[in-house]
Automatic annotation (TrEMBL):
Gene3D superfamilies: Nucleic acid-binding proteins, P-loop containing nucleotide triphosphate hydrolases, Probable gtpase engc, domain 3. NCBIfam families: ribosome small subunit-dependent GTPase A (TIGR00157). It is found in: Cytoplasm. The gene is rsgA. GTP binds at T120, K121, Q122, D123, G173, Q174, S175, G176, V177, G178, K179, S180, T181. Residues 80-229 form the EngC GTPase domain. This is Small ribosomal subunit biogenesis GTPase RsgA. Its main location: cytoplasm.
């Protein structure tokens, strides 16, 4: 029985890309499949990202027969077997937003995904890349992987293509940072809509979009999603927040008080590390900001 990966689920159909080995897709088009009744009976709901076995039925359609073991399930977007979260932030247009970057990182620390930060539109840097280099250094020092790209010059795209091989990734970032343009760069012939076009079509932020995986070759599949989640912190306890700032950990364990909030307590080693510059001021400021945001929300709900 042939194996495939579900790249789209819509109106009761699964669109299955035939696989050759591992996640390497064949040249064949996706097969439109129904799910076998027995799956439903057993309460098995196949998801985008699932690897499955299928049989071909008449008129070129197919039937999903068996689900291969699922390694993980992301809730928003709902995709199975995602390995890597790619966070895209543009150097300019829109301006680099470290507040939002840190917010994404807090959420990802919780999800168990690997993280890759991609700084896009490097060609628009007006200071010979100095500011970008500082951001890159800041996050690399914390232990995050950072790449810098420009879809205009094509720099960084080979490196990124190699990094995405053999796994399912989720692309995430504000509208306009260049996600679609970069994917078009990575995959010749892809031709996703970019900036101006979607504006002309008047796509509002209330448009619901289904998730779809794109085959980018070499066993890489990418979901280009509008947002990672609501980013509203509602699912996160305020006492867990500091653990989502991974560079705080080695200092936090030496704080004088157990359950130290790292905001004002005496003998707080996190605050000391901020004062000596071992922890970046911007990271700590965002920690305080999110902390207060979470407290406010709790009060309102
Ligand atoms: N100068 C420059 N412009 C870019 C680059 N990448 C994307 N853009 C432009 O930024 C706008 C938004 O890009 P798009 O890919 O639609 O962003 P998305 O909303 O994240 O998918 C478009 O006008 C692109 O032409 C880049 O690397 N350099
Ligand atoms: Mg786009
Ligand atoms: Zn502390």
């Amino acid at each position: 029985m042939p194996e495939g990966i579900i790249i789209k689920a819509l109106s009761g159909y699964y669109y299955v890309k035939p696989l050759r080995e591992g996640l390497i897709a064949t040249e064949e088009e996706a097969v439109q499949c129904r799910g076998r009744g027995i799956l439903k009976k057993k309460g098995i709901a196949p998801l985008v990202g699932d690897r499955i076995k299928y049989v071909l039925t008449e008129n070129g359609e197919g039937m999903v027969d068996e689900l291969l073991p699922r390694e993980s399930e992301l809730i928003r977007p709902q995709v199975a077997n995602v390995k890597l979260a790619v966070l895209l932030f543009s150097v300019r247009e829109p301006d680099m937003n470290l507040n939002l970057l840190d917010k994404f990182l807090v959420h990802i620390e919780h999800s168990g995904l690997e993280t890759l930060i991609v700084l896009t539109k490097q060609d628009l840097a007006d200071d010979e890349g100095e500011a970008t280099a500082l951001v890159k250094a800041l996050y690399e020092r914390i232990g995050y992987e950072v790449m810098v790209t420009s879809s205009l010059t094509g720099s960084g795209s080979d490196e990124l293509r190699n990094r995405l091989a053999g796994m399912i990734s989720v692309f995430s970032g504000q509208s306009g940072v260049g996600k679609s343009t970069l994917l078009n760069r990575l995959v010749p012939g892809l031709e996703l809509e970019t900036g101006e076009i979607s504006l002309r079509l008047g796509r509002g932020r209330h448009t619901t979009r289904h998730v779809e995986l794109m085959d980018i070759g070499n066993g890489g599949f990418v979901a280009d999603t509008p947002g990672f989640s609501q980013l509203d912190f509602l699912e996160l306890g305020v006492e867990e927040l500091s653990t989502c700032f991974r560079e705080f950990a080695s200092y936090a364990e030496r704080c004088k008080f157990r359950g130290c909030s790292h905001l004002h307590e005496p003998g707080c080693h996190v605050i000391q590390a901020v004062n000596t510059g071992e922890i970046a001021g911007s990271r700590y400021d965002h920690y305080k900001l999110f902390y207060n945001e979470m407290k406010d929300k709790k009060r309102r709900y």
